[in-house]
Design goal:
The N and C termini lie far apart (about 45 Å). The protein is mainly α. α2 packs across α4, α5 packs across α6 and α5 packs across α7.
């Protein structure tokens, strides 16, 4: 089932159950998808990789907003953002655990013969391409730094 079909099904269910927060999150996904499709020209469908990237961006935006609201001591605004992020995350594929990502990082480091932080960009490039849509760049970056730091 495509993302649009999943969204429509979830939106109908949210409307029937009168879940306003869920409906807001689902509508924001639908809006972002439509916007991305119109930006890319007349292309009707997005690829799965593009959809995953878009969803990850939406989740990251929600987490960033929640962090800012928490810093400003506004839990009343932070909680809905985190709830929306959780709803949007349901449409993402299964993410890899930190241990699984660490294995990929270790393989890339040994493949390249990386020894210092100078090689971080090369390692990040390889791992990011391999794990696109399966984890976020922040996790990869943290693990690469941990492995390359003396």
């Amino acid at each position: 089932m495509s993302l649009n079909e999943q969204l429509m099904t979830a939106m109908k269910a949210a409307m029937k159950s009168k879940d306003t927060l869920g409906l807001t999150a689902l509508r924001s996904i639908k809006s972002a998808v439509l916007l991305a499709q119109t930006e890319s020209g007349s292309k009707e469908k997005m690829t799965e990789a593009e959809e995953v990237k878009l969803l990850q961006k939406l989740v990251k935006q929600r987490h960033d907003s929640a962090a800012i609201f928490s810093e400003q001591n506004r839990p009343d605004l932070a909680e809905p953002e985190l709830a929306e992020a959780k709803i949007i995350s349901q449409f993402l594929p299964e993410m890899l655990t930190e241990d699984e990502v660490e294995k990929y990082v270790q393989i890339a480091i040994s493949k390249l013969g990386a020894t210092s932080m100078k090689d971080m960009g090369k390692v990040m490039g390889i791992v990011s391409k391999e794990l696109a849509g399966k984890t976020d760049g922040k996790t990869i970056s943290t693990l690469v730094k941990k492995k390359l730091m003396p």
